[in-house]
Amino acid sequence: MRRQVFMILLMGLLSLFMAHGALSLGKGRVDKKDIAEEIRKRIQAQLIRLGIPDPLSPPATRGFEDLPLALRYLPRDPYGYPDWTRAMEDGLLLPRDYIYGPEELGKERHYDKDVVIKVKDEVLGDVIFSHRKHNYWLSCDNCHPYPFKEKRGETKFTMYDNWKGKYCGLCHGKVAFMLRGIDNCLRCHTLRRN
User: Fold this and answer.
1) Could you tell me which residues are beta bridge partners of residue 127?
2) CA gap 90, 125 in Å, rounded
């Protein structure tokens, strides 16, 4: 329990710096304890209400021998799970567009631009969604029109939806990195606010 409270407080303080930049002590003091406590209360109340396990607690660390043999030599994230993006960028994995080749199936469309997903939270930064990283493995049809509509901003969802296995949670936590632990939060919530 102490570890969970510590992680929630740490998350609150780190997120405060992300969302608002460095604290300006010359313009008046911000009581970090009050802010962290408010964040902790808000998160715990929501989790209890929704029946969701604490997402700020890091996932269980996986050891080398815990992974299937085929995954043991791939780069790993801080929790020991395979880091698929780094494996692709390092040239360790080279997926094909098609089993039979594009001649039989036609050319797949690719969209490689980043999309900013605004979050309605004053603490966490907005999400920069990388189509390029997701297109390593997926075609547009895997995510569009379900669960995400193609037009930006049309699909409304929350982190609570993701934690329940919807939207991003359809893959993340199952075949992609878990949506738990501060390190993993910061993999998506990367855009600092002014």
Assistant:
1) 117
2) 28
Per-residue pLDDT of the chain (194 residues; tens, 9 = 90+): 445 545 554 555 555 444 444 444 344 455 666 666 666 677 777 667 766 666 667 777 888 888 888 888 999 888 888 888 899 899 998 877 666 655 545 555 678 899 999 998 777 889 999 998 898 888 888 899 999 999 988 999 998 899 889 999 999 888 888 888 878 888 899 887 76
Q: How would DSSP label each residue in 3-36?
A: HHHHHHHHHHHHHHHHHH-S--GGG----HHHHH
Burial class (CB in 10 A: 0-12, 13-18, 19+), 70: exposed
Contact criterion met (CB below 8 Å) for 131 and 114: yes
What domains lie within the chain, and their CATH numbers? 2-57+95-188 (3.90.10.10)
The answer for residues whose C-beta is within 8 angstroms of residue 46's C-beta and 6 or more apart is 52, 160
- CB of 154 closer than 8 Å to CB of 91: no
In Å, what is the CA distance from 64 to each residue of 42, 70, 125, 174? Answer: 36, 11, 32, 18
pTM for the full predicted model? 0.65
Q: Residue holding tokens 């966490």?
A: 124
